[in-house]
Design brief:
Strand content of chain A: 35-45%
Number of domains of chain A: 1
Largest sheet of chain A: 5 strands, antiparallel
CATH superfamily of chain A: YjbQ-like
Strand order of the largest sheet of chain A: 1-8-3-5-6
Protein name (chains A, B, C): Secondary thiamine-phosphate synthase enzyme
Family (chains A, B, C): Belongs to the UPF0047 family.
Organism (chains A, B, C): Halanaerobium saccharolyticum
Structural class of chain A: alpha+beta
Order of helices and strands of chain A: EEHEEHHEEEE
InterPro entries (chains A, B, C): UPF0047_YjbQ-like, YjbQ-like_sf
Radius of gyration of chain A: 15 Å
Helix content of chain A: 25-40%
Oligomer: homotrimer
Distance between the termini of chain A: 13 Å
Largest interface: A-B, 33 and 31 residues
CATH architecture of chain A: Sandwich
Number of helices of chain A: 3
Chain lengths: 132, 132, 132
Amino acid sequence: MMQKLSIKTNNKVELIDITTKVQNAVKEAGLDSGLVEIYIPHTTAAVTINENADPDVKADIKKEINKIVPFDDNYSHLEGNSAAHIKSSLFGVNQSIIVENKKLLLGTWQGIYFCEFDGPRSRNIYLKIIRD
Amino acid sequence: MMQKLSIKTNNKVELIDITTKVQNAVKEAGLDSGLVEIYIPHTTAAVTINENADPDVKADIKKEINKIVPFDDNYSHLEGNSAAHIKSSLFGVNQSIIVENKKLLLGTWQGIYFCEFDGPRSRNIYLKIIRD
Amino acid sequence: MMQKLSIKTNNKVELIDITTKVQNAVKEAGLDSGLVEIYIPHTTAAVTINENADPDVKADIKKEINKIVPFDDNYSHLEGNSAAHIKSSLFGVNQSIIVENKKLLLGTWQGIYFCEFDGPRSRNIYLKIIRD
């Protein structure tokens, strides 16, 4: 069983909390116990799990990854978005989360973030349910 | 089937070999063949797979990740542990490992490491068994 | 069901497109719908998903990761390949990809790359099929 979510991003680099969307999709699929795989079918975006309490954490993640992988660094790729491709490989395009009693088994402070590294764009997110 | 392991970390940044703990949990679960998902429910920790022969590799990984993501870099998050959050997203909070004949199918030199980036703390590790 | 692929790498740092090999293995396994886990049993290699259209993207990824993790940086590990170990943890040794209608559900521009960080060497890739 595969589901597709769509989102619109509004900035060049942006972390968007998709926890509720994923939780709702798991509920709609009627999954009691298993795994949900979140897969991003893009090469200049990613998905990560991190704190969803203080928004300053998101701001610091964005600022620091932009420093680790500078937007301009004599890249060869003519589209000008090589930094976004590299960030995608560093954060990764998939995450697997355990589901128990119909709920995502996240830690207390964890949220799921879609990571836009070359926006704004229309993006897709694939979800795959693995039942016990 | 979900299992929870607990560990205590002793340093601010620390890599702790959890291979034997995971192997024992797989054995106790009676899993012959399938996958085990290792999931860290924390936002300032991670799990990685790397060499478990020469302890210098662990030391080099710690030193270099501390350099790539400095402890202090004009971060906004007032808790002062933004570097740990960023390292968590770079290494990732989950790993899936193949199980065959009741054994983790790791490479010859591979071990599984819990990565503490903001210790010392008491930490949890979730394990999810996916049977063939 | 577990399959093993073998490849030879030719350079110290190299990204090798293995998409067709993985697609063929999925077809041979007769998988209609499920997940395929790609697992690298090495500590100085990785697997990533990124653009497979313009080869300059591969070149930029290699150049930038070599800059983020320098080959020499007063590492302790006497084998001299600590940079490769660190790159392996940053990119990761596994990826899970959704399979629908016997096909890898990759995005339009996505390919699967074996990442060699300490070649040239003979390397293995494990594939694990998870059926719906």
